[in-house]
Design goal:
The chain is of the alpha/beta class. Helices cover 41% and strands 15% of the residues. The protein folds into 2 domains: 148 residues, 3-Layer(aba) Sandwich (Peroxisomal Thiolase, Chain A, domain 1), CATH 3.40.47.10; 204 residues, Peroxisomal Thiolase, Chain A, domain 1, CATH 3.40.47. Helix 5 crosses helix 19 and helix 8 packs across helix 17. The longest helix is centred in the C-terminal third of the chain and has 17 residues. It is globular, with a radius of gyration of 21 Å. 56% of the residues are buried. The model has no long low-confidence stretch (mean pLDDT 95).
């Protein structure tokens, strides 16, 4: 496989609605930004692009089949190759990895990954129904299976198993909203307290409105290139940022659509097939997990995302990471719910299973130098969602995983101040970051590792 570099990226403003533009024009807003970021104009840039991958979750929102080919035409990329990917909430992450594969394989030297969703075209209740179609329509959906209900069920089990509290969940919301206060592309730029989160309208106990991401209109674009692609861009007048950002690892995982179909594994199987390298090497952690099994905890249960653990471990092996908490400088994580962020801390090996709640409130996942109005017992180690995540930035589904990629590129280039007009969210001396994209109740999950080269 060839080295693949994340050259540039662009995002549109994420908003509740973009009535001013068609979906093609919203994507071009992000596309133009990505092109300008390498100092090029559209004709010169397009001349060196080999192809594209399109990312959007649902045909229902735009009420348009084959929307990707309309975008391909609008961006001036016809007749170059392109295709669409779809995988629920993980669509953007899958798109990023498909573009990576096109370049790593040698099939392309410069590949554009673009994603969008225009969710404002339908009422909120109808949008929730469309999203619910990403559950089993012959099993879960007929009994009122909307996703907030699924995630409420999962976190109540997490609370029963491990003692997770609503205040720990609210700490995630406070963190992500206050981070987004400094992000001009975010949909919600508000400062909240724990009390604000708990006082907001209840959606599905214990999840309140401020525990849940919002529907959005928006788009994001990432440009990936080989070494030959970099030379082509520069020969055409491009100014590629140095040091380069390389995609050093990718991972994917899947699980059964219906949570009732997911098998439980015994302790030995968990340790052999799912434990991280750090967990396997720690006598204390192995004893801890043995005690969980002895008291009746089962894996993955409904409190864990086995696909997330699978994707993370695969990406870590690819990138040579053994201790993710201390070897990754930041993570842009799919936080459709505060509860799922807590669950994913555990799945990505930032803490042990059962410790996601205390980890959320500890300060380890916060940004340094920001006043969150919370008493945090520990210093930041690995900021999670320094952009504000889905909860605050918004969740135009097909764009979200690529939005994470754009923000990760800017973090590793050290250009957050340039793009945000504010350096508050810049992770200092960031060398390695991860992006995590998640679908359904954990049916598809992707993890990609990006590194700043010396």
């Amino acid at each position: 496989m060839r080295p693949v570099y994340a050259v540039s990226g662009g995002v549109s403003k994420f908003s509740k609605a973009r009535p001013d533009k068609t979906f093609q024009a919203v994507i071009k807003e992000a596309y133009d930004y990505a092109i300008a970021d390498v100092g090029m104009e559209m004709p010169a840039f397009t001349s060196v692009v080999d192809g594209s991958v399109a990312s959007y979750f649902s045909d229902h929102f735009s009420r348009q089949l084959m929307a990707g080919i309309m975008v391909q035409d609008y961006l001036g990329l016809c007749p170059k190759p392109g295709h669409r990917v779809e995988g629920g909430g993980a669509t953007g992450g899958l798109c990023f990895q498909e573009a990576w594969k096109s370049v790593a394989s040698g099939h392309m030297d410069v590949c554009v990954a673009y994603g969008f969703e225009t969710m404002s075209h339908v009422e909120t209740w109808k949008g929730n129904e469309f999203i619910a179609l990403a559950s089993d329509v012959s099993w879960d959906y007929p009994v009122g299976g909307f996703y907030s209900g699924y995630y409420a069920m999962m976190v109540t089990r997490h609370m029963k198993e491990f003692g997770t509290t609503v205040e720990q969940m609210a700490a995630v919301s406070v963190k992500n909203h206050i981070n987004a206060y400094h992000n001009p592309y975010a949909q919600k730029r508000d400062r909240y307290t724990i009390a604000d989160v708990r006082r907001s309208p209840m959606v599905a106990w214990p999840l309140t409105r401020l525990d849940i991401c919002v529907m959005s209109d928006g788009a994001a674009v990432v440009v990936l290139a080989s070494e030959e692609g970099l030379r082509k861009l520069e020969a055409a007048g491009g100014q590629v940022e140095r040091p380069l950002v390389r995609v050093s690892g990718i991972g994917r995982g899947t699980d059964a659509m219906r949570m009732s179909d997911r098998p439980h594994v015994d302790y030995e199987t968990f340790l052999r097939d799912y434990a991280t390298e750090q967990e396997k090497s720690s006598d204390e952690t192995r004893k801890y997990y043995r005690s969980l099994w002895e008291r009746g905890t089962r894996y993955p249960g409904v409190h864990s995302f086995r696909a997330g653990r699978t994707a993370g471990n695969m990406a870590y092996r690819h990138a040579g990471i053994a201790d993710p908490l201390h070897e990754i400088d930041f993570i842009e994580l799919h936080d459709a719910y505060t509860s799922s962020e807590i669950q994913t801390y555990e799945d990505l090996g930032l803490c042990r299973y059962g410790e996601g709640g205390p980890f959320a409130a500890s300060g380890k996942a916060f940004m340094p130098g920001i006043d969150y109005g919370l008493i945090l017992g520990e210093k930041p180690i690995c900021p999670v969602n320094p952009s504000g995540g889905l909860i605050a930035c918004g969740h135009p589904v097909g764009a979200t995983g690529l939005m994470q990629g754009v923000f990760a590129i800017w973090q590793l280039q050290g250009t957050i101040a340039k793009h945000f007009g504010d350096a508050t969210l810049q992770v200092k001396e960031a060398r390695r970051g991860a992006i995590h994209s998640h679908a359904g109740t954990g049916t598809y999950v992707t993890v990609s590792i990006l590194e700043r080269e010396s």
